[in-house]
Amino acid sequence: MLLGFLFAAAVSTANQGSAVPLQIPNEPHLKAVQVIWREKKVPAFRAGDAWTTFLGVDLDAKPGEHRAVAVLTMDDGRVDRREIAVNVVAKKFPTSQLNVNERFVQLSKADLSRANRESQETEAIYRRITTDLVPDEAFTVPIPGGTGRTFGARRVFNGEPRAPHSGADLRATTGTPVHATNRGRVVLAKHLFFTGNTVILDHGLGIYSLYAHLSRIDVKRGVVVKNGQVIGLAGATGRVTAPHLHWGMRVQGARVDPFSLVR
Ligand SMILES: [Zn+2]
Fold it and tell me: pTM for the full model?
């Protein structure tokens, strides 16, 4: 049947550390669309005559061709599977040398166990794929006009190599309002060891945004914020060299450049 061939040759090209937007044209009798990607089931949502979703390509994803499978469920229960090739292109990331309070480099036993506990908590959040809210509006930069694209930088703190930079640092002074990148549910709003006062929003489909080093948090866990709503003020809490906004995005757990979600 022709149906199976309409979408079979779809190919997307993506940099390491980016979100891949996917659009699948709607068809008569199509009831649900799900994309299987890196062993995860990623739902798509319908808006007008297309089904949309985003796939996360991690910072350290292997360059080359990766395969996703779109699973189309028809209203009579019939299921149609179509392959999508995602061609991952290697990206060169710079190295940055940073000087911070030694407490954040040589961790005390108590700080180390706290940091590990918090990392487990945030990773557990990023594993969840929810669908009650979906990102049907465009993602926006949390500080309008904000610049500073240091995503992916290999980092050396006080001479010690540490994890690569998994977000974008936006220039900001303490007190600059920070806006939600899209509509989302607050799933974390508290002080963490490395990221200081932190807010994490769930935008659905496994897409999460993180706002770190805030001087003030203005939202509570559980509430739904609008796209552009102020969620707190920029600051210098946690492991920082100076006030700024650290803006991170996770897409099905993958660390992606936040700017790759902004059209
Ligand atoms: Zn940062």
Answer: 0.93
